[in-house]
Design a protein that fits this description.
single chain; alpha+beta; 8 helices; 270 residues; 7 strands
Length: 270
């Protein structure tokens, strides 16, 4: 991708280079194929080989002498394809994180060797208790492998793309999450309650129920991974007990007279 972008940039800035490439496409043997088409051919060939060997294997009897070798070849091609896809995703993830780091400045260090961006979405947020804002406000929420970042447009430069950080939260401090019932007279229908550290609670609101379910899925999965992957917290049984107690209180505090609300609890690390 970087090479393709470099060629595209060169073509835009250098008219002679661009004309040279355009002239080359007129050769009959190139069949009007642009340079960019040749650049992505190596990547495109891998899935084609995967389909080819899969077809070969499906037509080859299991007792045939070539069956085991075809199976081995197909597994190898699948492994290469998976590596290419993962490398491409990692590169795109790193690029997005670098762009985000540039937008928020150097006060908060987003880029870390272990950190990846999992999901991001514009949402409404509100703190219950102490926090940067107790009013419902707009924010762009970024979920990483170990943190949750809340940002908004920089007020000092409203016409720029710069972002101000509302909160930068460690997932290890999250005790539990649950579904919020809709608040009457407001547009906050698709809320998620995030309980943190016994002192404050964060409410985040998605634009629809599908996105809320997506956020719940990503939050639960990432929170579990963050706790299980941190040796310091795996050894901290007190942290586990606090999380268990918080979830128990959430369950016991549900109003039995209110409409049925699906409650999703933080999974406890055993």
């Amino acid at each position: 991708d970087l090479i393709i972008e470099a060629v595209r940039d060169k073509r835009q800035k250098n008219s002679k280079f661009n004309k040279f490439l355009e002239d080359q496409t007129k050769h009959p043997e190139l069949n009007l194929q642009q340079l960019e088409g040749f650049q992505i051919m190596p990547v495109q060939r891998v899935p084609r080989y995967e389909l080819l060997f899969a077809n070969y294997l499906s037509e080859t009897p299991k007792d045939h002498v070539d069956h085991s070798k075809l199976t081995e070849a197909l597994d190898t091609i699948k492994s290469v394809a998976k590596h290419i896809n993962e490398s491409k995703m990692a590169e795109e993830n790193a690029k997005m994180m670098l762009q985000l780091q540039n937008l928020i400045g150097s006060k908060y260090r987003i880029i870390q060797p272990h950190r990846k961006l999992i999901f991001s979405e514009p949402m409404k947020v509100k703190w219950i208790g102490s926090g940067p804002t107790t009013r419902l406000s707009s924010a762009h929420v970024y979920l990483f492998t170990d943190t949750l970042l809340l940002t908004t447009k920089a007020k000092r430069r409203p016409h720029s793309k710069e972002l101000s950080v509302l909160a930068f939260l460690e997932l290890r401090d999250f005790l539990g999450i649950s579904v919020l019932p809709p608040e009457e007279g407001t547009e906050t229908y698709f809320g998620i309650k995030v309980t943190m550290n016994d002192t404050k609670v964060l409410h985040v609101y998605a634009s629809d129920d599908i996105k809320r379910k997506k956020w719940i899925h990503y939050l639960l999965t990432t929170m579990n991974d963050a706790v299980q992957g941190a040796d310091a917290f795996n050894k901290n049984s007190g942290f586990r007990e606090k999380r268990r107690e918080a979830n128990k209180q959430l369950d016991e505090g549900e109003d039995s007279n209110s409409p049925k609300v699906d409650r999703l609890r933080r999974q406890t690390v055993s």
